[in-house]
């Protein structure tokens, strides 16, 4: 019989009810057409191995409600007229122009779409700002996941009461940020989130009301600007100078201030100690909470590593945000917040309400990845690799463009910024198959015409040399 039905023999609904429902919904959805012949009760019963009485009960109900009609002597058919107007097949309704859906102010203020720009095949891609995924020890990661799949009982995969993250992972994160970034905290101050982007979203939910002002870096990370605006906050630009974001001359007193002091996004500059102290003094004086996004701090190639600003903050409240996207892989979707003690409860409640908690299996594997020293080893190894790539990129750009290029932000991180004078590489990039990323979208005000972000971590040295050669017309 050419009419597929799925009957659940162990479910709570009796079979005649299931047969009735599937015919009814199929007719309403246009799956069965008016006047279509319906299999006989005997044929249906044989095809689905159910009793004829069961099928007859369903058919009688369908006839009584006007979905089927029986023609004496020639069989049963789907009714040519549907029972009433409200039961028109959705297919027919779909032909009418749809009513506009109402969306919230939050949704109306969202003016960004997921920015996924896959590498175009045949192009040399210098626009990717993330890590080299080919070098991540996925075999080891698989072993850790498998270990915990075996170890964890089924009960661990039910809802459990740790929206802020497993104790094992929070302990490991507290130890990691203390040794790697000099962050002061206890495991109780750590809240595990699904990437630092979720951490930023929780900050907006917990700390801001519509109309509140937030200072953001100019140029700066678009992901925070869009988020704050969608939540109804007003973003106020804070200029980024060669030694980091500066609050000098800012007359408005915001509720929060967002900074990326280790490796400013997108310029890549590191905030000097003097600027950090200036900013902390200002925040202390005006009672402004600091959001420190330390997204790209682990790789530093020259000079002494600068500790996180949180470590200098003393009595100034700082929400510190970190992520494993760059030191591991973005698809992991695990980041963390280190919170002032009085904010732990509201953030944990907001995390529970918005998505319960971050996946348990990955948290368990990650706690071991940190605890067994794999992360520290991986970072040490990648730092050597990325440093070579950075050096190759810097010298290739300098050779190709000479005085026409100024490179900033190359002391740390996975990308640097290059400003070009005179000729722009954009047109040549297009012609020569090189994918570049302009910094224009990171500016609130008029962006400089000739500024590009160069990601070097995910690209091999040969590719970097070849891409820069193609960009240069020398
Ligand atoms: C400055 C900055 N902060 C935060 C994020 C969010 O990263 P994730 O959610 O992957 O941790 C990004 C990544 O795009 C970023 O560039």
Please give a structural write-up.
By secondary structure, this protein is an alpha/beta fold. The protein folds into 3 domains: 15-93, Winged helix-like DNA-binding domain superfamily/Winged helix DNA-binding domain (Arc Repressor Mutant, subunit A); 124-130 and 377-472, Alpha-Beta Complex (Aspartate Aminotransferase, domain 1); 155-372, Aspartate Aminotransferase, domain 2 (3-Layer(aba) Sandwich). Helix content is 38%, strand content 15%. The protein is built from 15 helices and 17 strands. The protein has helices at residues 15-28, 41-48, 52-64, 90-94, 105-109, 138-151, 167-181, 196-207, 222-230, 273-286, 341-355, 360-371, 374-401, 426-432, 461-471, and strands at 37-38, 68-71, 75-78, 124-125, 190-193, 213-218, 234-241, 244-245, 256-259, 289-293, 318-323, 335-338, 405-408, 415-420, 434-435, 437-438, 451-455. An 8-stranded mixed β-sheet has the order 5-12-11-10-9-6-7-8, sandwiched between helices. A hairpin with a 2-residue loop joins β7 (234-241) and β8 (244-245). The structure holds pyridoxal-5'-phosphate. Residues 195-197, 221, 223, 260, 265, 293, 295, 323, 325, 330, 335 line the site of pyridoxal-5'-phosphate (PLP).
